[in-house]
UniProtKB/TrEMBL annotation, chain A:
<protein>
    <submittedName>
        <fullName>ABC transporter ATP-binding protein</fullName>
    </submittedName>
</protein>
<dbReference type="InterPro" id="IPR052156">
    <property type="entry name" value="BCAA_Transport_ATP-bd_LivF"/>
</dbReference>
<dbReference type="InterPro" id="IPR017871">
    <property type="entry name" value="ABC_transporter-like_CS"/>
</dbReference>
<comment type="function">
    <text>Involved in beta-(1--&gt;2)glucan export. Transmembrane domains (TMD) form a pore in the inner membrane and the ATP-binding domain (NBD) is responsible for energy generation.</text>
</comment>
<comment type="similarity">
    <text>Belongs to the ABC transporter superfamily.</text>
</comment>
<keyword id="KW-0813">Transport</keyword>
<keyword id="KW-0029">Amino-acid transport</keyword>
<dbReference type="GO" id="GO:0005524">
    <property type="term" value="F:ATP binding"/>
</dbReference>
<dbReference type="GO" id="GO:0015807">
    <property type="term" value="P:L-amino acid transport"/>
</dbReference>
TrEMBL record, chain B:
<feature type="transmembrane region" description="Helical">
    <location>
        <begin position="339"/>
        <end position="357"/>
    </location>
</feature>
<dbReference type="Pfam" id="PF02653">
    <property type="entry name" value="BPD_transp_2"/>
</dbReference>
<keyword id="KW-0472">Membrane</keyword>
<feature type="transmembrane region" description="Helical">
    <location>
        <begin position="254"/>
        <end position="278"/>
    </location>
</feature>
<keyword id="KW-1133">Transmembrane helix</keyword>
<feature type="transmembrane region" description="Helical">
    <location>
        <begin position="12"/>
        <end position="35"/>
    </location>
</feature>
<feature type="transmembrane region" description="Helical">
    <location>
        <begin position="96"/>
        <end position="116"/>
    </location>
</feature>
<feature type="transmembrane region" description="Helical">
    <location>
        <begin position="311"/>
        <end position="333"/>
    </location>
</feature>
<feature type="transmembrane region" description="Helical">
    <location>
        <begin position="547"/>
        <end position="573"/>
    </location>
</feature>
Length: 246, 607
């Protein structure tokens, strides 16, 4: 299991999480190096989304440590964690459906107070996501799934985060948009933002990730550089819980 | 007032006042998915603070408005901080019950401080009226309209252009996502409660000035009207709440014009029920289905019920049965008779609210139906009292279930609102249907209890009679809970979608629960009618509904033994400690708050 290295931006070590009596995580340890894309793979009910919630402070671990840039996140509220520099692209986007696209994107800058820089960043988002330009005054709920994903990513970037956590960014998107989203994640990463993403779609995620972890019923069963895992038959096995062909 | 224009102006002015209450409710519902039943109490507090300011401190009008808004906002902040925030991770029903408890406590505190007698609240405005077209309008009308419009504008600017306003809107659309943007939801809640309370308080003061009278009964009426307006406009929809309020004001005003004053509230509640049934999302929502509320499933606190061995129950029953053989005072028996009657109502409510999860706030209506039926059967048709009481139970079962059936498709809070409204409708129909119910005069000379020709007049015989009826009902209900029917009820409570997927017909099982519950409550009402010998439309009121709910929560929702224990405790203990009547409701409110906070599963646990 990978131990938290000194240059790790985010590190979970020996995290145990429970929902009532049921244990979700068993001594979970994950680290995200500065400037890397790290991907957490796993099937349904493996505890992927709960890992996201632990990082964001939406669920509290029973034991274990979560650090960001060397400081502990345990005991902080979600807004406090966001202010430390973590932004999120939640599962199923979770846009503010009744607010306009512009308002949604600007909500991402909620923790900032520098008006002029925020306006500049909005313009920057429109160059990064040119399609959103025509949609700015539209209700966010009226956009297609792919467009909503763009808004969610723009919203996350608006806080100028050091790291973005994404919960299944390609879920429910048309193949065209899946490629577009992966491309954007790579672009975002190249601008210096670390990325931690949870994915079901292993082959796609391993295309862009630097490292990956495979989670199975709350335990890390496999981890390492993405390039090495891409051809590892154990990924497929761990995933499908057997030897079926994908 | 004579012209239609006058009625229109009156409707819009009253609608404006409702809007100040309803907008606050909508803001709170938006952010917390909570119907704040304490909103009317803040309105009441606002009216009395206004009275203190105007009558005792002689403040000028603008200052009065500011004082009232600030003081009411402070009350709102206190409610949020100490009443509701500790319940954030509690079961969904907890905040709802807490606001009911808070409203009882606030109303009683106002009543104890200022006495229940009405007081005059002068508006300090010149008493002139201007001719406008065919109607007239006075300075106070203009003030109310001005306050309404100003508040709406301020609120719009706040929500649209301030950072906190954005946070409120974001949190009301997706609380978790808002937190992930860095929004502190506690601050949003504070803001919303402060604003809602300030608006509610000012509204109470304006109404006091409009009628130049304030009294403590204003509270519940304001909550009800605000809830009606809010639901008509679409729960959580702020502009909708304004439109719903104006519509409600107009409907009432025209209704009064055509049918008379005593019909005013009837129109409000009929409007509510019609909207709830046809468009539960409000008039302006596109969907015709209620939203997938997160109010089912964990609505009731899960727990392991306290197991009481059968022999212990038998011993307890035997002790109570032989109690009159010992030299106990008439007073003790009288108290216990009240407890047994309340126990039957609690059995009914614990089945409906606990076992099948339909938290009814209008249960006293079932008592009223049973009482009136039994009284009228015995008086008008000379039916023997024993049979008449059974008739009351049957009528309550049939009529109660029929009345409630349109709301079977609702869930969670909406069920509570609908039952509250239906309860009020029953009471208003009793008030207005004079040819049958004798209207406001009530029914007097109801024959005393009798069984097989023998009058039950001595306290001992009444005691035995009510105790045995209650025990029989409790045994039946106990059987019901262990049967497959009981399991189906609980399945519907825990997850109605899953229950439906397993082929359970929700309507059928909800009907069955209300039929059984209606029967038990109707019997209780019937016995009460013959015991009191006089009843009117106010004998069985919302306070009793809430008392029954407190009993049921004290005992543990769904818990048969708990319902009886809760009745004995809440009727008996205040008597034992000789607590004056005016403090009792205060105590019920406090008990409810403490339970919700520290033991939401009740004394004996939910089943």
């Amino acid at each position: 299991m990978t131990n938290a290295s000194p240059e790790a931006l985010l590190a979970l070590s020996n995290v145990n999480t429970f929902y009532g009596q049921a244990q979700v995580h068993f001594d979970l340890s994950i680290s995200v190096a500065r400037g890397h894309i790290v991907c957490l793979l796993g099937g349904n009910a493996s505890g992927k989304s709960t890992t996201m919630k632990i990082i964001l402070g939406l669920v509290k671990p029973r034991s274990g440590e979560v650090t960001f840039d060397g400081a502990s996140l345990v005991g902080l509220t979600t807004p406090q964690i966001v202010r430390r520099g973590i932004a999120s692209v939640p599962e199923a986007r979770r846009l503010f459906a009744e607010m306009s696209v512009r308002e949604n994107i600007l909500m991402g800058a909620f923790v900032r107070n520098d008006r002029e820089a925020i306006a500049q960043d909005l313009d920057r988002m429109l160059t990064l996501f040119p399609k959103l330009g025509q949609r700015l005054s539209q209700r966010a709920g009226s956009l297609s799934g792919g467009e909503q994903q763009m808004v969610a990513m723009a919203r996350a970037l608006m806080s100028r985060p050091r790291m973005i956590v994404m919960d299944e960014p390609t879920m429910g998107l048309s193949p065209l948009y899946v490629d577009r989203v992966l491309e954007l994640i790579r672009t975002i990463n190249q601008e210096g933002v670390s990325v931690f993403m949870v994915e079901q779609n292993a082959s796609l995620a391993l295309e862009i990730a630097h490292e990956a972890y495979v989670l199975q019923t709350g335990k890390i069963v496999l981890s390492g550089p993405a390039r090495a895992l891409k051809d590892d038959p154990r990924v497929r096995d761990a995933y499908l819980g057997g030897s079926e062909a994908a | 007032m004579s012209s239609w224009l006058d009625y229109t102006i009156n409707g819009l002015i009253v609608g404006n006042v409702y809007a100040l209450v309803a907008v606050g409710l909508a803001l709170i519902f938006g952010v917390s998915r909570l119907i704040n039943f304490a909103q009317g109490s803040i309105y009441l507090v606002g009216a009395y603070i206004g009275w203190v300011a105007v009558v005792q401190l002689h403040t000028p009008l603008p200052l009065t408005i500011i004082v009232v808004a600030a003081a009411a906002a402070l009350v709102g902040l206190i409610i949020e901080r100490f009443g509701l925030r500790p319940l954030q991770n509690s079961v969904r029903i907890a905040p709802l019950l807490a606001t009911i408890g808070i409203s009882f406590v606030l109303d009683q505190l106002v009543m104890l401080t200022f006495s229940p007698n009405p007081r005059a609240l002068p508006s300090q405005l010149p008493d002139v009226r201007f001719q406008v077209g065919g109607g007239t309008i006075g300075p106070l009308d203009l003030l109310i309209a001005g306050v309404g419009i100003t508040s709406a504008l301020l609120l719009f600017v706040f929500l649209r252009y301030s950072k906190l306003g954005w946070a409120v809107r974001a949190a009301s659309q997706d609380r978790d996502a808002a937190m992930q943007m860095g929004v502190d939801v506690n601050r949003v809640n504070q803001a919303v409660f402060g604003i809602a309370a300030a608006l509610g308080g000012v509204s109470g003061m304006l109404v006091g000035m409009y009628y130049n009278q304030i009294d403590t009964a204003m509270s519940l009426q304001a909550t009800l009207k605000g809830v009606v307006a809010e639901v008509v406009g679409g729960a959580g929809n702020v502009p909708g709440a304004v439109v719903g309020s104006l519509l409600l004001g107009l409907v009432e005003s025209y209704g009064v014009a055509v049918f008379g004053t005593s019909y005013r509230n009837l129109f409000a509640f009929l409007l509510l029920v019609v909207v709830l049934v046809l468009r539960p999302n409000g008039l302006f929502a596109s969907a015709r289905q209620a939203p997938p509320e997160p109010l089912t499933g964990t609505f009731i606190a899960p727990s392991r019920p306290v197991r009481i061995p059968r022999w212990a129950l038998a011993v307890a029953a035997a002790i109570f049965a032989i109690l009159p053989l010992f030299p106990v005072s008439f007073y003790v028996l009288q108290t216990l008779i009240n407890a047994w009657l309340l126990g039957m109502l609690a059995l009914s409510l614990t089945l409906v609210a606990g076992t099948i999860g339909q938290v009814s706030l209008g249960h006293a209506a079932l008592l009223a139906i049973g009482a009136y039926t039994s009284a009228l059967l015995s008086l008008t048709f000379a039916v023997p009292v024993g049979l008449a009481i059974i008739g009351g139970g049957l009528m309550s079962a049939a009529l109660g279930t029929t009345l409630i059936s349109p709301s079977f498709r609702l869930r969670g809070h909406y069920v509570s609102i609908a039952t509250l409204a239906i309860g009020e409708i029953v009471s208003l129909v009793i008030l207005n249907w004079e040819s049958v119910t004798r209207g406001p005069i009530g029914i007097s000379g109801i024959p005393p209890l009798s069984l097989f020709g023998y009058d039950l007049i001595s306290p001992t015989s009444i005691y035995w009679f009510s105790l045995s009826v209650m025990v029989v009902l409790a045994l039946l209900q106990g059987r019901l809970l262990t049967s497959h029917l009981g399991r189906s009820f609980r399945a519907i409570r825990d997850d109605d979608i899953a229950a439906r997927a397993y082929g359970l017909s929700l309507n059928r099982y909800k009907s069955l629960a209300f039929i059984f519950g209606g029967f038990a409550a109707g019997i209780s009402g019937g016995i009460a009618a013959h015991l009191y010998s006089y009843i009117n439309h106010e004998t069985f009121n919302t306070q009793q509904s809430i008392l029954a709910l407190t009993v049921v929560i004290l005992g543990g929702l769904g818990n048969v033994v708990g319902a009886i224990l809760g009745s004995v405790a809440l009727v008996g203990l205040p008597e034992m400690f000789r607590i004056a009547a005016e403090y009792r409701i205060l105590i019920y409110g406090i008990v409810l708050l403490l339970l919700v906070r520290f033991r939401p599963q009740g004394l004996l646990g939910t089943i």
